[in-house]
Amino acid sequence: MPGTALLVMDVQQAIIAHVRDDGYPARLAGAVKAARAAGIPVIHVVLGFRAGHPECTPRNKNFGALPPGAFAEGDPGSVIHPAVEPLPGETVVTKKRVSAFTGSDLELVLRAADLDHLVLTGVATSGVVLSTLRQAADLDYRLTVLSDGCYDPDPEVHRVLVDKVLARQAEVSTIEEWSAALAG
User: Fold this and answer.
1) Does the pTM exceed 0.85?
2) How far is 118 from 7, CA to CA, in rounded Å?
3) Start and end of every Isochorismatase-like domain (predicted)?
C-alpha cells in the first residue's frame, strides 16, 4: 500500500493504565506487526511537554490540570507501551494537544515521505482519534480507522463515533480485516 502509514497514537504507559480492555495492547501489536510485515511505516504519536509545562494554560481543561512533570522528559508514564514499542528508525512524533497534528511536525513527516493514506489507532476514540481524523480529513488525507485498534473508556461513545461519525470520513475496518487485506 504505497503512501500508507499506520499511526499509533497516545499508547503511552500513563494512558494505557486507564484502558479496561486487557486484550487491547496485544490486538494493537498485531496491527503494528502486520504493517511492518507489509512495509508500511509505523508512526508513533505521543503526548509530550517541556519541564514545567510552559505549553499548557489553566484555561485548557485537558492539559491545564496535569500534575507537574506529567508527560515531560523523564516521566515513566510518557513511555510508549512495550507491546507497540518503536523499532530503531521508526518515527516518533510528539504532539502538544489532542490532535496528532497540533503542536507537532506530523504533517511535515507525512509530506516528506509522500504518505497520503493514514490508518488510525489509539487511545481515546473520542480524543486523539476523532481530533486527528477531523484535521486529517480537512488536509485531504485518505483515512482508515481500525475500530478495534481504538479504545474509549465509554464503549457507547466508541460505538457511536466509529459507526456514525468516523465512518463519514474514513473507511472503518477491524485489525483482522486490515491485516488480511495486507497479506492477501
Assistant:
1) yes
2) 7
3) 4-177
Q: Which residue has the cell 513511555?
A: 79
At residue 118's C-alpha, the angle toward residues 136 and 138, to 5°, is 15
Order of strands, edge to edge, in the sheet holding 4-9?
A: 91-95, 42-47, 4-9, 117-123, 142-151, 171-173
- Is CATH 3.30.390.30 the classification given to domain 4-183? no
Return the residue matching grid coordinates 499509533. Answer: 8
Q: Which has the closest alpha carbon to 81: 16, 6, 19?
A: 16
CA distance 64 to 60: 5
Q: Which of 17, 13, 12, 19 is nearest to 125 (CA)?
A: 19
Q: Which three-class secondary structure state does DSSP give residue 116? A: coil
Residue tagged 502486520 (cell numbers): 34
Q: E strand or H helix at 134, and its extent?
A: helix 130-138
Q: How far is CA 95 from the centre of its chain?
A: 11
- pLDDT tens string 18-62: 999 999 999 999 999 999 999 999 999 999 999 999 999 999 998
